[in-house]
Amino acid sequence: MLSKLVCKQVLNHGLRLTSRAASAPAQQVVINRKPEVKYQKLFINNEFVDSLSGASFDVINPATGGVIAQVADGSAKDVDRAVKAANNAFRLGSEWRRMDPADRGALLYKLADLIERDRAYIAALETYNNGKPFKDAYNIDIPHCIAVLRYYAGWPDKINGRVLPVGGDFFSYTRREPVGVVGQIIPWNFPMILLCWKIGPAVVTGCTTVVKLDEHTPLTGLYTAKLIQEAGFPPGVVNIIAGDGPNCGGSIVKHPDVHKIAFTGSTHVGKIIGAEAAKLVKRTTLELGGKSPNIVFADCDRMY
């Protein structure tokens, strides 16, 4: 994956572009307050499939407490199915492993274009499921996702090694290679942004990935899975499932064929993941802890 410096660069790049987009008022867009939920199944090997157990869970509208949809509940067996698809896509000689780096970037550009095309719908769905104001989803979150993917899209053919000057009749060089299958777990607060932060670096570096969406906010992630399919990603490169943390997320962390874990969430769970990953000497990227609480008082104008 990419360095902390690069991650800081992409964050700043995305914030600059989204600040420009925020100047356009959301009132110019017709807001769909009850967007259609189009995808509710697990996305494995470029197909939408039911969970093997047939189980599902309710997705709740945080504004009303009502049920928006029922989404397939990923279990350990579903995780294993997704990991096998990711490993198959990563095998030597596969379409993904033989793809030119610039072509990997082209896929990210295409995905960014599709998100931009469907910006209003995705923002409405994010608001419907997550509860954030539409103007924030439309003017900040979705433009940031587009900017992030386009930023990463320019990187695949610029990641290289070095020739090292050594003594004697030797030719010494370094070569950067993809880690393999990356298991990625995201929380509920910025579903689309965090999904793009996770997918971008994995695709850039030639890895394959299994992403677990938060069970409270899976809807925009599952819609993005359809856009990944539409963009032309080879089967198994990006797999997106939804489920709870201890069972579905824990199965990703403990799976022996997952080579790296990227997790955004609580410090408590991050410690558990770090300990489990250490047992198999897995690489980890842990973004932990919330530090920006908001207190809403009774006299707040909630319609503002």
Automatic annotation (TrEMBL):
Transmembrane segments: none annotated. The active site is at residue 287. Keywords: Oxidoreductase. The keyword Oxidoreductase applies. It comes from the Eukaryota. PANTHER family: ALDEHYDE DEHYDROGENASE-RELATED. This is Aldehyde dehydrogenase domain-containing protein. It comes from Rotaria socialis. The lineage of its organism: Eukaryota, Metazoa, Spiralia, Gnathifera, Rotifera.
